[in-house]
Amino acid sequence: MQNKNKKIVSVYKSMYTGLFKYGCRLTGDHALVEDCINDLFAELIHKDDFSDIKNWGIYLTRALKNKLLNELERRKPTESIDEMRYEYTFERSSEDIMIEEEEMKLVNEKVQKTIERLSKRNKEVINLRFYDGLSFDKIGVRLGIKSKTVQNHIQNAYIKFRHIYSSL
Length: 168
Description:
The radius of gyration is 21 Å and the shape is globular. It has two domains: 2-75; 94-167, Arc Repressor Mutant, subunit A (Orthogonal Bundle). Helix 1 runs antiparallel to helix 2, helix 1 packs across helix 3 and helix 2 (30-45) packs across helix 3. By secondary structure, it is mainly α. Helices cover 78% and strands 0% of the residues.
């Protein structure tokens, strides 16, 4: 039982951010995504055996997608014809917009500080891949290295980026 809980906690910690981002891309409803992820892991706690789970990433991604779709279907409003006549629009206040812009500014500053701390090679591959949109092959040609080496550099840059970003 103890090992099972340790495994679930370990998987939760390593997969949560990716699952959250994936769920937000599907729905845009952050609270719903958080609830579904937590429900998913709560269900895993009661699962007797994990031997049928060969790839946690695929398993959890599919399970989250299904859970989100089921929840969205369950939440679909059943409107009467009279209710459908009225359209409600939500306008964000100027204060909300200012707060969101300030939060984005802080995130951008943190990202820039993180990038500044990366090695020259890591900065180079990140810029070519994510800012210039080049494929691994094109980056390899430009830098005179193999495509697989480019992939390794990007993976290492990503790991270092996450580590530095989380420590700021």
